[in-house]
Amino acid sequence: MSKIIDGKEISSHIKSEVRSETEILKKEKNVTPGLAFIIAGEDPASRVYVKNKGKACDEAGFYSVTEAVPGDITESGLLDLIRRFNSDEKIHGILVQLPLPAHIDQKKIIEAIDYKKDVDGFHPVNAGKLSIGDKCFIPCTPFGITEMLRRKNIKTEGMRAVIIGRSNIVGKPVASLLLRPEFNCTVTVCHSRTPDLKSVTSEADILIAAIGRADFVKRDFIKEGSVIIDVGINRTEDKETKSGYKITGDVDYKDCFDKCGMITPVPGGVGPMTIAMLLRNTLDAAKGKIYD
Ligand code: GUN
Predict the structure, then answer these.
(1) Probe residue for ligand 1, chosen from 120, 233, 278 as the CB with the greatest number of ligand atoms within 8 Å
(2) Are residues 107 and 166 in the same domain?
(3) Residue 292 pLDDT more than 90?
(4) Among the options 118, 120, 205, 230, which is catalytic?
(5) Pocket around ligand 1: residues whose beta carbon is below 6 Å from it?
(6) Domain co-membership, 87 together with 169
(7) CA–CA separation, 153 vs 159, rounded Å?
(8) Average pLDDT for 14-28
């Protein structure tokens, strides 16, 4: 079996499952999954992410709208937009691309989204439900990670999972997920203030790197035969490429490859899974599968 966990391949299976279920939903219930994107400002990486997510919606047969607003939009302007989508029956999911411009209170914006349309799983109601093990929208990156483990038949029961990074988007929710009975991992979350990080990560059967530092994890961080999940998407300068940069993960892939048991590449690992799980969450929202 290949050592490489091919997120592109797994995500394309999920996307085709979503596409067929969408066709059935349209035929049988006359419901088209609808997703609204809100993006404020000109950050080029965020614009590309939203464009790719919109394209994935088209391919799945979804209805989608993108509100690309200037970076100087007021907080109340943004709240108005959210309220409009909250009460739009054609819209089952709302995604506000993060980060938001500095003058906007991100917490206030996320809390304004109807939690029943919060396909990102960032609303405190969904975050709380995830933590207590209730049905809820699961944030797309953590959901993508566990779905890769599940579809690769990795028997996580009893495994020691170590996460580097404690963000609300990845670190904390993936920790909650791996604690659930369907995974039964023993979970440790490390962060920038963890002393002797290597001594913790080198005990991990599953190591999840979500720190946002290119090539941070080297071979002396990892346990022989472990599963390495690289969440990093770092732009590093590369004069050889047309764009002048390349995308690098948080794991030094070459350095770790022969020591680990399995590894996700960057690009082509966790990234495409995140988009696939966004489609899954939106379809489930349209079906009323998470909340009626
Ligand atoms: N910015 C980086 N990742 C994400 C994500 O998963 N969702 C949203 N809304 N913004 C992001």
Answers:
(1) 120
(2) no
(3) no
(4) 120
(5) 95-98, 120, 140-141, 169, 274
(6) no
(7) 13
(8) 98
218 is catalytic: no
d(Cα 6, Cα 267) in Å, to the nearest integer? 10
Reported as a single tens digit per residue, the pLDDT across 115-168 is 999 999 999 999 999 999 999 999 999 999 999 999 999 999 999 999 999 999
Compute, in angstroms, the gap from residue 27 CA to the centroid of ligand 1: 31
Distance between Cα 274 and ligand 1 center (Å): 9
**Average pLDDT score over the chain:** 97
> pLDDT confidence of 205, banded at 50, 70, 90?
very high
Catalytic annotation on 53?
Answer: yes
> Would you say residue 131 lies in a domain?
no
Predicted pLDDT of residue 20:
98
Give the DSSP letter string of 203-219. T-SEEEE-S--TT-B-G
- Residue 72 annotated to the active site: no
The answer to whether 39 touches 91, Cβ cutoff 8 Å, is no
For residue 223, what are the domain limits?
140-272
Which tokens belong to 146? 């566990």
Distance CA 246, CA 253 (A): 14
Scan for tokens 């799983």, then name that residue.
121
**What is the tens place of the pLDDT at every residue in 59-94?**
999 999 999 999 999 999 999 999 999 999 999 999
